[in-house]
């Protein structure tokens, strides 16, 4: 399955936007945290898991999704939220903890919920799978259109929830696609040290569903694999498991010294940064030139800056609002 | 590290105290080994297994997959088969994915075997918030674990207690849940309570599980807490002293078994009780403490007991909301003032 | 004789500043060569400072103070 020119440029633009968002968050996150790195300080306190390098997974999959389709994401959710069309202003405001945020600041960066586009995420590994299966079941029972996609990291494939959810989706033939973003590291533990199979797509065989592997963080290969899997679930042909070889260009979280990585690994990954690679691919194909690239990049940056300004200019909820929204 | 620093002057963070206790027991007892996520070369996300991998290697200091159900269940099996595993649940909030192994196996196998099967394991887990990590990474859940019979529960407030309790937990033939509060660990990036880093003897020692400590004597009110809450109480006691009141502070140290004798003796002396708990207000530690005193002797109280606990809400991310909801010394002082007015 | 304790130049990579998160020995106490005396944090990484010789510790940089590589943080009198 080949993307159209419009889809190619959409994917590129959303990768650029997502990356710039992470770069801006990175610098704002460090405000108030130097020279003393205290997570509680600065305009964005708490843990921060940046998605730099994993953008192809988000855009290659979400290019096939409509707002009515369901996505569950992980503790590292920004790129997926951006590609799924989560309200950027409200998302950034939530990351800042502001009243105008998706949850008025109650959730923060690991707990983003935008019901308008059927997006949610969780800070607990593997816990997005069950809800994706259930949302797919709901659509099937209600006879409503829409499919579900559960994103997870490769470490999540070693959780019981992974195996239970895959089996359930397969036995009930539900419209759900499972997407593993394999960035090779679960915090400090390498995939090969924690996982009995070299490729998790092989685990699909255990649930008699198609298992697809995508190598090298390749945007269009992801687009193609996801497109076929999503077309199958839309036709009621049951779930698919996809594992994508991607790259975590940042630490597990901000402040991670990453001493566990072999020397030179990070530099090598950065040389294979998927965004410049895709830019070159589009330039070579004549779908982009320097002038149109500049315009696209400037537009994406401006959108991010506007969202950050919106967040910065927003107020915090009064502290007592902590007591609200426990129940509807 | 050498062992020549003059006695009583060497201080440790709780993280180092836990690692030192574990290392000493691993040297003494080949049955002791450690499993968990990122506890190997990284030394634990919260520093409490630092140095163990270098000294004991990958056989005895085992990084696990993100598979808590499997490795905590495996610890139960290994413990029942004669080993003495120490396992880490990185954040206590993650208990949801593996609670069956904890409360249906670890906590019940001894009972279901009529006392014939021992489960000598330590489950160590981080608790607490205050640094905007939101409601899936900031809970204490002391009451949740203490509520379930069959496992001992400890929660130290300083490095001296942490080392003694860790050693005792490893020696214990029963499962022990060792709950360490992130703000006390001595990891600067979590903001560190200075009062938790205290002199710690280099030689191995144990602290009896199930014994509270009166960490400050007084006669006007008893402030009871555990872990980080003890430091809030000590600050409140200092503030009350400046107002001319004398507060006694009881550090529970263990929740199971609960040292009701020490509690009751203190309240019998002061006649007033304030319980401070970073865990949720309802159905938890604070209610149990008050009940333990009142059901024993309601006449010992000169005023209705009070609690300064976390409201019954998931922990919010925004620092404005989270800090407002957390217990602190000012809230304890306020609670005392209200008690004296009523 | 007085010997200074400095932050070793190779304690961490790069030129970042660190902060002393804990003195693990009280001011005025006697320490032995090789004893762990302080922790320095750079972002989330913690590094250890050992006593370069035996002596009585005199702290010049307190907890929470920012330090650079090569900076003197204490001295040892023997």
Automatic annotation (TrEMBL), chain A:
Q: Which residues form the Dehydrogenase E1 component domain?
A: 42-319
InterPro entries from the UniProt entry: DH_E1, PDH_E1_Alpha_Subunit, THDP-binding
Q: Which UniProt keywords apply?
A: Oxidoreductase, Thiamine pyrophosphate
Read off the SUPFAM superfamilies from this record: Thiamin diphosphate-binding fold (THDP-binding)
Determine if Metal-binding is one of this entry's keywords.
no
Q: Which cofactor does it need?
A: thiamine diphosphate
Q: What is this protein called?
A: Acetoin:2,6-dichlorophenolindophenol oxidoreductase subunit alpha
UniProtKB/TrEMBL annotation, chain B:
| Domain named Transketolase-like pyrimidine-binding: residues | 12-187
InterPro entries for the chain: THDP-binding, Transketo_C/PFOR_II, Transketolase-like_Pyr-bd, Transketolase_C
Pfam families reported in the protein's UniProt record: Transket_pyr, Transketolase_C
Q: Which CDD domains match?
A: TPP_PYR_E1-PDHc-beta_like
Q: Which domain of life is it from?
A: Bacteria
Q: Which UniProt keywords apply?
A: Oxidoreductase, Pyruvate, Thiamine pyrophosphate
Report the cofactors: thiamine diphosphate
* SMART domains attached to this UniProt entry: Transket_pyr
Entry's PANTHER family? PYRUVATE DEHYDROGENASE E1 COMPONENT BETA SUBUNIT (PTHR43257), PYRUVATE DEHYDROGENASE E1 COMPONENT SUBUNIT BETA (PTHR43257:SF2)
Put simply, this protein is called Pyruvate dehydrogenase subunit beta
TrEMBL record, chain C:
Question: Does the keyword Lyase feature in the UniProt annotation?
Answer: no
| Cofactor list | (R)-lipoate
List keywords of the entry alphabetically.
Lipoyl
* InterPro entries found in the cross-reference section: 2-oxoA_DH_lipoyl-BS (IPR003016), Biotin_lipoyl (IPR000089), Single_hybrid_motif (IPR011053)
List the Pfam families hit by this protein, alphabetically: Biotin_lipoyl
Task: Provide the leader sequence positions.
Answer: none
Task: Using the record's annotation, list all stretches that form the Lipoyl-binding domain.
Answer: 2-77
Cited SUPFAM superfamilies: Single hybrid motif
| Protein known as | Lipoyl-binding domain-containing protein
Query: What is the organism of origin for this protein?
Result: Litchfieldella qijiaojingensis
């Amino acid at each position: 399955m080949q993307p159209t020119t419009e889809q190619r440029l959409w994917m590129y633009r959303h990768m650029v936007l997502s990356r710039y968002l992470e770069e801006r968050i990175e610098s704002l996150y460090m405000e108030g945290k130097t020279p003393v790195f205290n997570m509680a300080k600065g305009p964005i306190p708490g843990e921060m898991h940046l998605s730099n390098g994993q953008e192809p997974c988000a855009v290659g999959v979400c290019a096939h999704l409509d707002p009515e389709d369901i996505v569950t994401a992980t503790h590292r959710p920004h790129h997926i939220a951006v590609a799924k069309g989560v309200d950027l202003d409200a998302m950034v405001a939530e990351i800042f903890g502001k009243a105008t945020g998706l949850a008025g600041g109650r959730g923060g960066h690991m707990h983003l919920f935008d019901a308008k586009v059927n997006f949610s995420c969780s800070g607990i590994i593997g816990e997005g799978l069950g809800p994706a299966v259930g949302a797919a079941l709901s659509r099937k029972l209600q006879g409503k259109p829409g499919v579900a996609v559960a994103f997870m990291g490769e470490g999540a494939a070693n959780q019981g929830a992974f195996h239970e959810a895959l089996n359930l989706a397969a036995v009930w033939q539900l419209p759900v696609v499972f997407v593993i973003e394999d960035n090779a590291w679960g915090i400090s533990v390498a995939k090969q040290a924690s996982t009995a199979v070299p490729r998790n797509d092989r685990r699909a065989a255990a649930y008699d569903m198609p298992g697809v592997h995508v190598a090298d963080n390749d945007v269009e290969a992801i687009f193609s694999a996801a497109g076929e899997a999503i077309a199958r679930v839309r036709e009621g042909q049951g779930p698919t498991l996809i594992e994508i070889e991607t790259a975590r260009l940042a630490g597990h979280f901000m402040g991670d010294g990453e001493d566990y990585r072999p020397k030179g690994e990070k530099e090598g990954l950065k040389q294979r940064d998927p965004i410049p690679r895709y830019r070159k691919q589009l330039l070579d194909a004549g779908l982009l030139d320097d002038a149109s690239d500049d315009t696209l990049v400037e537009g994406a940056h401006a959108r991010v800056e506007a969202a950050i300004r919106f967040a910065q200019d927003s107020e915090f909820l009064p502290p007592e609002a902590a007591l609200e929204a426990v129940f509807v | 590290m050498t062992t020549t620093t003059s006695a009583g002057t060497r201080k440790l963070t709780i993280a180092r105290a836990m690692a030192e206790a574990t290392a000493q027991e691993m040297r003494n007892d080949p049955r002791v080994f450690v499993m968990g996520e990122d506890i190997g070369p990284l030394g634990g996300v919260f520093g409490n297994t630092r140095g163990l991998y270098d000294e004991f290697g990958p056989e005895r200091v085992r990084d696990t997959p993100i598979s808590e159900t499997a490795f905590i269940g495996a610890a139960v099996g290994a413990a029942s088969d004669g080993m003495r595993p120490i396992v880490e649940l990185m954040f206590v909030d993650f208990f949801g994915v593996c609670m069956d192994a904890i409360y249906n196996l670890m906590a019940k196998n001894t009972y279901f075997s009529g006392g014939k099967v021992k489960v000598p394991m330590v489950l160590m887990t981080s608790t607490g918030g205050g640094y905007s990590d939101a409601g899936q990474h900031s809970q204490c859940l002391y009451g949740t674990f203490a509520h379930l019979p069959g496992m001992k529960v400890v929660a130290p407030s300083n490095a001296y207690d942490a080392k003694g309790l860790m050693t005792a937990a490893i020696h214990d033939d029963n499962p022990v849940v060792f709950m360490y509060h992130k703000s006390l660990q001595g990891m600067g990036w979590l903001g560190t309570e200075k009062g938790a880093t205290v002199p710690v003897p280099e030689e191995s020692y144990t602290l009896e599980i199930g014994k509270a400590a009166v960490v400050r004597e007084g006669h006007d009110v008893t402030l009871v807490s555990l872990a980080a809450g003890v430091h809030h109480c000590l600050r409140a006691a200092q503030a009350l002293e400046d107002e001319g009141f004398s507060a006694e502070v009881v550090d529970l140290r263990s929740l199971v078994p609960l040292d009701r004798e020490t509690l009751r003796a203190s309240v019998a002396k002061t006649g007033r009780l304030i319980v401070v708990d970073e865990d949720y207000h309802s159905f938890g530690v604070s209610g149990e403490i008050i009940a333990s005193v009142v059901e024993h002797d309601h006449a010992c109280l000169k005023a209705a007991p009070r609690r300064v606990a976390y409201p019954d809400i998931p922990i919010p991310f925004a620092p404005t909301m989270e800090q407002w909801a957390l217990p602190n010394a000012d809230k304890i002082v306020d609670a005392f003032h209200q008690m004296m007015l009523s | 004789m007085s010997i200074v304790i400095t932050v070793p130049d190779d304690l961490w990579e790069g030129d970042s500043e660190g902060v002393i998160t804990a003195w693990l020995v009280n001011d005025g106490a006697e320490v032995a060569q090789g004893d762990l005396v302080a922790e320095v944090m750079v972002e989330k990484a913690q590094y250890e400072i050992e006593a370069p010789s035996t002596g009585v510790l005199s702290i010049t940089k307190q907890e929470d103070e920012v330090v650079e590589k090569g900076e003197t943080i204490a001295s040892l009198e023997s």
